[in-house]
Amino acid sequence: MSTAPEVCPVCGEDVPRGVAACPECGADDRSGWREDAGATDGLDLPDEEFAYDDFAQREFGHSEVKPEGIGWAWWAAAVAALLALAAMYLRGF
């Protein structure tokens, strides 16, 4: 087990002498104080900037999402429901 650094390499807080882990984030020799702890971030992501528009074009064939309009059947159903509610109200239900 190595000695604790003066400043936590994970969260940047001061680490008191003689502690086994950072009191702020809990980093210790196994999780962040090793020499090779910063060698990788644990993710297998590319280093370049992510281009969302290019990704959407490759995955979905188009980069813009265009919502479809409400079909005439839904408008007819809404009008029928409103007429039915108005008739029930007028009849006293």
What is the overall silhouette? Answer: elongated
- Number of DSSP-assigned strands: 0
Element pattern in H and E: HH
Q: What distance lies between the first and last C-alpha atoms, to the nearest angstrom?
A: 79 Å
Largest sheet: none
Extract low-pLDDT stretches. Answer: none
How many DSSP helices?
Answer: 2
Mean pLDDT: 78
Strand residue content: under 5%
- Based on helices, strands and strand pairing, what is the structural class? mainly alpha
Helix-residue proportion: 25-40%
Kindly provide the radius of gyration, computed on alpha-carbon positions and rounded to a whole number of angstroms.
Answer: 30 Å
Write up what this structure looks like.
With about 90 residues, the chain is mostly helical. The chain is about 30% helix and about 0% strand. It is built from two helices and no strands. The chain has helices spanning about 50-60, 70-90. The longest helix is centred in the C-terminal third of the chain and has 20 residues, at about 70-90. It is elongated, with a radius of gyration of 30 Å.
